[in-house]
Structures are given as structure tokens and as C-alpha cells.
Amino acid sequence: MENVSIEDRSESINSLQSTVRKLENALSQMTQNGSSTTLVKKRLKAVSIGLSMLEHVWNKKPHQFTKEELAEARDTITRLFPSIENSYAKSKAGSPQKTLLERRMRALELAIQAIDNSEMDL
Fold first, then answer.
1. Distance CA 38, CA 88 (A)
2. Alpha carbons 19 and 82: distance in angstroms, whole number
3. First vs last Cα of the chain: how many Å apart?
4. In sequence order, what are the residues at sequence separation of 6 or more whose Cβ sits closer than 8 angstroms to the Cβ of residue 65?
5. What residue ranges define each of the domains in the chain, with the CATH number in brackets?
6. DSSP assignment of the chain, as one string?
7. Residues 6+ apart with CB under 8 A from 27
8. Cα 88 vs. chain centroid, distance in angstroms?
């Protein structure tokens, strides 16, 4: 985690902030439509925890997550990868979509590392 460049740190935090906003918007729309929101809520919580853990590791911001919350977030984030990788494989080389997905995957990988490191400290 210490070898991550300032640029990668910034891109990762921005990527997860963007992902949180997208999930919040999806949750709002699904709530209005009366759709089931269980999965979106779970993903929102997991990505929010991942973002908090990156900020904890890199910016020394405190966190108050339990070992169980961290483990659940890690599992949920890990389960996001197949669909992201599938979208990545379908996107065109050099496209903004491909760049966004690359950054999102990198950010989520770093979030998992941050969660793993923090779980050891608990």
C-alpha cells in the first residue's frame, strides 16, 4: 500500500467517490420505482467502506468498522469483479469507458488491500 503513487491514490479515491455517487443515485431511483434495493444497499455500503479504508490508510482518517463489517465489504467488493471485467472486455480500446473501468478495478483492488491490512490491526 505504501508504494502507490500520489496520482494512483487520487484516481482511486475519485473513482470510488464516483462509484458511491452512482450507487446512491441507483438506490434513489430503485426506491422511487419500488424495486428491491437489497443488493444496491449492500454494494453501496461495501464501496463506502472501501473508500473509507483507503482514506484511513493514506490520509490517516479514523474508521470505526468492525472486523465483520470489513470482511463483508471485502467479500462484496470481490464479487463485483466478474461483472466489471466483463464490461471491460466488451469496451473499446482507448475509450473513456475502458479507462473508467481500469481505474475502478484498480481502486477496488487497493480497497481490498486496505481492508486486509486493517483487519490485521483489529
1. 25
2. 16
3. 18
4. 49, 52, 53, 73, 118
5. 6-121 (1.20.1440)
6. -TT--HHHHHHHHHHHHHHHHHHHHHHHHHHHHT---HHHHHHHHHHHHHHHHHHHHHH-------HHHHHHHHHHHHHHHHHHHHHHHHSPTT-HHHHHHHHHHHHHHHHHHHHHHHHHH-
7. 37, 40, 41, 44
8. 16
**pLDDT score recorded for residue 65:** 95
**Given CA atoms 56, 62, 64, 67 in this order, what sign does their dihedral have?**
positive
Smallest CA-to-CA distance from 102 within 3, 21, 15 is with 15
Q: How many residues appear in the chain?
A: 122
Most distant pair of Cα atoms in the chain: their distance: 45
On whether the CB atoms of residues 43 and 76 are closer than 8 A, the answer is yes
How does pLDDT run across 10-64, given as a tens digit for each residue? 999 999 999 999 999 999 999 999 999 999 999 999 999 999 999 999 999 999 9
